Amino acid sequence: MKAGIYIHIPFCKSRCSYCDFATDVYRNNEAVERYVNALCTEISDFRFQISNSEDQNPKTSDQIDTIYFGGGTPSLLSAKQLEKILNSIHKNFAVEENIEFTLEMNPATVSLEKLKDFKSLGVNRASFGVQTFDDKALKILARGHNAEDARKTFELLRASDFDNISFDLIAGLPNQTLNDWERNLDEALKLRPEHLSLYLLEIHEGTPLAEQIRSKRQPLPDEDLAAEMYELIIEKTAGNGFLQYEISNFCQPTCESKHNSKYWLCEPVFAFGVSAHSFDGKKRWSNERDTNKYVSLIEKDESPIVEINKLDEKQLAGEFAFLNLRLSKGLNLDEYKSRFGIDLKENLADDLARLEEFGLIEYAGDCLKLTCKGMVYSNEVFAVFV
Ligand code: SF4
User: Fold this and answer.
1) CA of 72 to the centre of ligand 1 (A)
2) I need a surface site. Which of 18, 28, 154, 233 has the fewest CB within 10 A?
3) How far out from the chain centre does Cα 26 lie?
4) How far is the CA of 98 from the centre of ligand 1 (A)?
5) CATH of 313-385, one of 3.40.50.150, 1.10.10.920, 2.40.37.20, 2.30.30.30
6) What is the rounded average pLDDT of the residues 79-105?
7) Domain spans of the chain?
8) Quick check: 103 and 74 in contact, CB under 8 A?
9) Ligand 1 close to Cβ of residue 15 (< 6 A)
10) How much of the chain is in helix, strand and coil states, percent to nearest 5?
């Protein structure tokens, strides 16, 4: 089976108020250089680390057909640093030609020249973190850029021939009305990106935004309004020729994210960098979450892996079911039965009947699918399969 490679770049210009990813503020080039060196060492020692951590064979012979640089803000890397990491990947993995190669970018972090350099290194897809076109909301989120920066960076992306751009937008921001959200969606759709990732805001404990909500400086997210916003997403994207292929992901025909689809289809992804999570089809493992510790471990020739979970058949079957259910085409029950020997309709008859009665799931031929309501309350459905 073909595999993907994920590289985590943990540096950002500033720290957003809602973010709970493993990221640090970009301090100086020296720190980034040190991190890049550690990453390259981790990539080249991959075989060594996995075979030392577990008794299984490493799977470096997998053909790689996607590379994804996420973060953090990978667009803060220089072209030289990106090239160095890529060389390391190519030396250690069998990378196919014409792969999907995505780099996450944030507004006001790239110049035309840098984008052209990224393109010449093979980056052919930009995942662009816009989040909102509303300057007031951007301030609350502490995004460190304004809406005009986002518009200008999008123009730069097109000017440097990026023809596969994904937009990230967040709905349900503090004080955001349905009309505000509609304006944001309209502006994004008018720009005609090839792909849209549209998320509902999640509040994570320990973030500044969670604290502001607790101390009543910002309002609690309104669940009913979020559901209305989600319905508007479905209506507007469909009306503008976008296909929904996953709960939060929409695209122009044939522009699905190949890399992200691997997560939902339970295909292997080898991930490197601080807090990176890998899956080889049978086990999951993850790296140290603190950047300094991650770098120090590697500099001391020690493995950055902090957790390995070998999944048994039951766990694999459960994960496969709820990850496939995230996809619009749903879970094919016949294929599932022949792969795992489990008849879900029989095994979960009462649960499925209840979810169907609440309007959260539906059947389409051999497939079990989430309804629009089920997509909003997907965690209720997934709980049945875990
Ligand atoms: S840019 Fe993204 S990764 Fe960086 S702090 Fe903001 S939300 Fe987190």
Assistant:
1) 5
2) 28
3) 21
4) 29
5) 1.10.10.920
6) 96
7) 3-264, 313-385
8) yes
9) yes
10) 45, 25, 35
Q: How far is the CA of 77 from the centre of ligand 1 (A)?
A: 15
User: Residue 25's pLDDT band (boundaries 50, 70, 90)?
Assistant: confident
| 75 secondary structure, DSSP code | G
Q: Indicate yes or no: pTM above 0.85.
A: yes
**Looking at 24-28, 168-172, 204-208, which range is the least confident one?**
24-28
SS (H, E, C) 302-328: CCCEEEEEECCHHHHHHHHHHHHHCEC
Please give the CATH number for the structural domain made up of 3-264.
Answer: 3.20.20.70
pLDDT, tens digit, 9 for 90 and up, residues 100-125? 999 999 999 999 999 999 999 999 99
Whose structure tokens read 């030609």? 97
Interval 177-203 mean pLDDT: 96
pLDDT in tens, 209-247: 999 999 999 998 898 999 999 999 999 999 999 999 999
User: Whose C-alpha lies nearest to ligand 1, atom 3?
Assistant: 72
For the residues 189-217, what does the mean pLDDT come to? 95
CA distance 251 to 165: 10
Tokens at 153, concatenated: 């960076």
What separation in Å is there between the alpha carbon of 107 and the centre of ligand 1?
11
23 lines ligand 1 (CB under 6 A): yes
- Is the pLDDT assigned to residue 23 strictly greater than 90? no
How many angstroms separate the alpha carbon of residue 380 from the centre of ligand 1?
Answer: 28
Q: What are the residues whose beta carbons fall under 8 Å from the beta carbon of 237, sequence distance 6 or more?
A: 189, 196, 198, 244, 250
**For range 286-304, the mean pLDDT:** 94
Both tokens of 352, joined, read 């499925």
Residue whose CA is at the smallest distance from ligand 1 atom 6: 16
One-letter amino acid identity for 275? S
- Decide: 368 and 344 in contact? Cβ < 8 Å: yes
